[in-house]
Batch of 4 targets.
Target 1
Amino acid sequence: MYSNQTLKRKKRLLLAIQSIIKNNMKITLTIALMLISHIAIGQKIEISSKNGDSKELDGKSQMERIIKNYEKEIKNWIFTKKIYIDKNVIPFSHPVLTLNCNYFDNDLKQLATFLHEQFHWFVASKIAEEENAIKAFKELFPEVPVEAGLGARNEYSTYLHLIVCDMEFQALTKLIGENSARQLLAKWTHYTWIYKTVLEHKQVREINIRYGFIIP
């Protein structure tokens, strides 16, 4: 029979060993995730025409040119590698990031739209942080618009876009400077209340920083 003191020592030793194993597993998992992330960044983005017509193929060529021109700057902001070009849709992020052909005359607008949808993927990977940020936004802005042009399709989506649109603003600021980024976002005819709020209320950025919604 072991004494109580001996049993306590054995228990402490067992806990210490379990802690070492647990920490090593965490380290291994972290390294694995870093390697996976590194591999993903190196993979080529796959861009496809949804319907195969000439307009979408031109849109595909445009996106390939944009990505090539900004490859170094945006490589850490790519969270999904499969892209569709569909002339018949409003851009969306899931299940496959899909862009339309509305900005043939403006590569920067198409790039901004592409990054906007990429950041939806980033936010979707941080569910708890997303919920906490939206809770904070609800306290700051108890009522938000859902009308077409002003807000998103529903209240939750409007709050969600305070994260995504601010990340878009952060990215454009890095790419073209804050003044030019402000000018571009202020001219969007969609989500006008959201972009106005992002540009004019510093509390939006403060909340996003608090919950880790800053560009990598």
Target 2
Amino acid sequence: MAKLKTASLLIVMTMLFSGITGCGRDNYIKFDGYYSNQQHHNGVPIFFRFYPDGTVTASLPAIANGAIQFTPNQLDKNNTKECTIRGKYVLNKNNVTFRLVDSNGTADFSGEFNKRAITLKSHSNINGKDSVTTYEFMRGNHG
């Protein structure tokens, strides 16, 4: 009986580590850049950055003369002078939920990462508006 339990345990461990179980979808969250809707925005560009420690930061940069005024420092969680919108995210496979907080109030987000983007449903607790937006990943060396 002990040999059967040991053999069963080895089979299960082999399946888990080799991805045969079918549960092993790739984790698509990326930490070496940021996510942005700047290519498809309808007036309000938003940038997000996710950190491995569970922190998420966001920036709503100004638009001057039709150009988005954004620097990656605005998403640096350690730069409290420029980064004022932040929160903590919970990741379950490729599904994410988080709440962002700034001096105006909060907004709740939930969505799913794919290979090149994240699609987020959002609810503003400031003005009550809901939206669904896709944010493309932009690789960047910052913060």
Target 3
Amino acid sequence: MFGDFAPVWPFLSRFGGPADPTAPVGPTLVFETYPVLAIIALGWTLLDSRSAGRLPKYNPSRKETFSLSDWQHVCSKACAEFRNRCLSHLAHWLEAAAANSAPRKSDQDRLDALLCLLVAINVAEGYSCLMIGDTQSGYIVVPHNEQLKAELEARCVQTGRPPGQWLHIFQSTNCIAGTEVKKPMKPYHEMTVAERTIARIAKNREGERARRLHTGRWTLSEIVSRLDAGKQRATYGAVAGLVGGLARGLMNGRPKTPKCSWVVASSGPQRGWPTGYTLHQIHPDCFRQTRAGSGNVINDSAQLERWLEGHTGQSAGYY
């Protein structure tokens, strides 16, 4: 793992050696990142008495400190990032991971791998990033965060290091800007793996931007009101696809009322039923539909959006 014969050296050689983020680069970059510092840089810390918040305790091998809600928090944040880029297969894995009530260390390793990938995507998309360290003694790269940079500058001063030599803000010169790739695109078969990834993200983001022209206006309250008015059930996943975030926990913080009972589970023993509701909390018509085995449930976000556009009535008044 360490020393002159460690496997990392032939790996780096195969991909052109470690990149210098402050210099022009080729189509492939190899650099190190750190999931914990990435979480800080992305603003995913949790509120507590400290002004900067606290780090999520999401390592399941540390049973004395592990928090399932912290695990779900990191999975949810990462899921939203990948879903916003239309990388749905990764978002689906993260959604399933958030629903895992007993994650293992191997699950955390996969989650950390996706956090590292997210840092790489931020570089590829041309966002400002922070290089901490130097090319001689080693460095890591995370998204730029001004509060984090200020704290690291203070640490440099405390340890006698000139901040200007140890902290650098940079943007990749081979990146995606909005939905356009700055350099002319090659034929797909001539692209490197990195270039294909950049092209795919650009295409996905263009499609996402077009979709958001239609779906960005919907709020959870509006959707719930229209489902209630139209006496129409829709799954947590279909609603989450329009408002963003995970299906799991979509209705957290909302009262279990008849009005909200039209948002239901898509699978499992509670399929078609609102999760965690008692009989008196379910709208009578919703209860009758479900009890009768009615298949009138919207499972798809696009189908739900079309239904919403055709139903503009107000809520029936259940709260």
Target 4
Amino acid sequence: MLEVLFWTSSIAYFLVGVNYFLRVFCIALVDWIGYDTETVRLEKTTTVTFTLQFFNTAFLLLLINTNWSEQFFSFGLIAGDNEDFQANFFSTVGSSIIYTMIFNSVYPFLEAMGYWSMRLGYRLLDGGLCNKYNTNKTSI
């Protein structure tokens, strides 16, 4: 039971990282395909990214928590304690999905703050923040 709980919690946070790389890959793939208008490109990017991340998150959490003891295949996963959709199943899987959703709701802010702090750090290395036209660089 403790081992399954560990893997469930670990996979919830691992999925956030995987979903980030899937999002970047989907955006690059849709850009590579190319569309006539920006609206169609954004529509396709949103649809593909949402679909891929949804199935990635939902199915991996379900596979980790499923009891595979009576199946002839197991995908090499640890057999979970949940034989059917019971209250324990929903509390285990539901909490992992909620953790992933909470982190995904906060992550865009953390990412923006990270890029802002990198930009601020580069400005400090270049000569300070007092005058935005002051720079140590001689060319662009």
